[in-house]
Design a protein that fits this description.
191 residues, Metallo-beta-lactamase, Chain A, 5-stranded mixed beta sheet, 11 strands
């Protein structure tokens, strides 16, 4: 189970999901709040930090987390600030008690990743798609609407019917995740 440590935080941050299990992982440390104390309310240690993409609202707390827990960070490209190990498209990454497939999904940001586990029936969608047919911004540096659409379509081709979709902002989707992704794709196609 993933716990959103940023829930209720009144600051500019992404969601920050703590997933406990065989490999306790923080998916995106967020920004502008004391995530270290929030982690310590649940666990004593972390095995890894997994980064969906290097936007400041997703990695602002990364240095504090790495220092507090003496932990490495995994992301798409080691040229990005704070990324110690690369995760390539198609790689398998252990999160909690399950293996997840990393999918390179550019469009919102060139180094954007989502993580999907068929066994766990969970998709960490980051800023690709959100609840209520929303999709990631493409007006920031490195953003591209057509590339984002291809990434959403790829996710629809790869994922089964996940029970849960954890987005980078806003609520997690616990019913109708595929429908939300399909509606996001449709909305993104409307210009």
């Amino acid at each position: 189970m993933a716990t959103n440590l940023a829930a209720g935080v009144d600051a500019f941050t992404s969601n920050a999901f703590l997933v406990e299990g065989d490999r306790t992982v923080l998916v995106d440390p967020g920004a502008n709040f004391d995530v270290v104390s929030a982690v310590r309310e649940h666990v004593d240690d972390l095995d890894a930090v997994l980064l969906t993409h290097p936007h400041p609202d997703h990695i602002g707390n990364l240095d504090d987390v790495k220092a507090a827990f003496d932990v490495d960070a995994w992301g798409f490209d080691t040229s990005d600030d704070g990324v110690d190990h690369e995760v390539a498209d198609g790689d398998t990454v252990a999160i909690g008690d399950h293996d997840y497939e990393a999918l390179h999904t550019p469009g919102h940001e060139p180094h954007h990743l989502v993580f999907y586990s068929q066994d766990a029936s969970v998709l960490f969608a980051a800023d690709l798609v959100f609840a209520n047919r929303a999709f990631g911004r493409t007006d920031l540096e490195g953003g591209d609407r057509d590339t984002l659409l291809r990434s959403i379509d790829r996710v629809l081709d790869v994922v089964d019917e996940p029970d849960v979709m954890h987005a980078g902002h806003g609520p997690s989707v616990t019913t109708g995740a595929i429908e939300n992704i399909e509606l996001a794709a449709k909305a993104a196609r409307q210009r």
